[in-house]
Please model this.
Amino acid sequence: MACAVLTGCGGAGPGPGGDPDELIKAATRRLTDACLVRQGLVPPSPGPGRPPGSDDRRVSEALFGAGPAELSLALPTGYVVRAHTDGCLAAAQQRLYGDQPGWFRASVVVNNLEPEAARTRRDLTEVRARHRAEIADWQRLRAHALTEATTVLDTPPPKGNPPA
Model:
């Protein structure tokens, strides 16, 4: 998979008419894999295990960030969701969404509307109405990500080892 994502050797990728979630996912993968490679790390790949000598902790910290999470959002359900602003995933989200902290807030709220409705014993329509601004932010940022994802996937990856 890393070969397909980084070099495009997996055949034709998703086109502009593809599933938006898959387009964004593929672009995120391309960006995070390239970020890891620039750091001299082997991107994770599906399948059995990583190559011998791989440094899973370094890869995880490079991918997801290290230390205390910089972003945090307490939900009405009582859960607190945290995320890093450093790391390859945060950089990919910043590139795709144009506002990684904004995307974090909007996506956490939107992805937790049903649990909030259940926890507060409110109708989902009422909960959605209360979060109209977050839903609008989510839609705007996701549209931006779809446009950026198409650009990322339509641009051939760099050849060789770019400077870190």
Observations:
- The longest strand covers residues 71-74.
- The chain has a mean pLDDT of 85.
